[in-house]
Design a protein that fits this description.
This protein has eight helices and seven strands; from the N terminus they run H-H-E-H-E-E-E-H-E-H-E-H-H-H-E. With 219 residues, it is of the alpha/beta class. The chain has one domain: 3-Layer(aba) Sandwich (Rossmann fold). The protein has a seven-stranded mixed β-sheet, sandwiched between helices. The longest helix has 18 residues. Helix content is 37%, strand content 22%. Bound molecules: S-adenosylmethionine (SAM).
Amino acid sequence: MAKETKNILVNSIHDKQLQVFASQYISGRLIDIGCGKKPYEELLSPLVTEHVGVDHQDSFHDKSNVDIFGSAYEIPVEDESFDSAISTAVLEHLEEPELALRECYRVLKPGGYAIYSIPFIWHIHEAPRDFFRYSKFGIEYLFNKTGFEIIEIKPLSGFWVTFGQLFVYYIYRFNRGPLRWLHIIDIIGLSIQGFVYLINKIDKTEQWTWMYMVVAKKP
Ligand SMILES: C[S@@+](CC[C@H](N)C(=O)[O-])C[C@H]1O[C@@H](n2cnc3c(N)ncnc32)[C@H](O)[C@@H]1O
């Protein structure tokens, strides 16, 4: 139970926004760079003709849904062979983000769209392959430098979701023994997520967002 309940809020905000952007910008052949378990296959299937997941051999994630093994820096596919791209929660794990954006640009057709989700305030995860966090200015800089036109950079929360969700992750470190059997941490975690969801509607201080979702176009 612990694993599934601790991040319901951020996952649902993220996936809702992905659905909104994808319905506007994703179509045709889709490449999913750093796909992990390819969690968005079902969500995106009505929009695309093919969903090709790429990940590297060293991935910590379940690799059974990976279609092509390769590095985000050198994807073994032809130039301009995809209409759309997504890369969710991957850029922070890449030591050379500029190279990875150039590679995404290479494989997209002109006029193709890419959707990235990129954290700004989040704890270290998947150590030691956790290299960077990005402000919206850093995102603008990198995407413009690699030739993309930015369509939108959407902060996914204000202060309270970030603060509440990090607090929930923190308390889950103590989720063992009787606390775990009695689901005390689950109950506290879910209550905090519910509470911060409500106050996020009132206070949208975007400079504290945990994550941005970016839509970019290859001109
Ligand atoms: C936090 S997970 C996100 C997975 C998936 N996109 C999702 O949203 O659930 C980061 C992913 O980036 C992949 N990754 C890290 N470095 C990579 C690299 N150099 N080339 C390709 N994928 C990489 C990891 O293997 C992992 O699947």
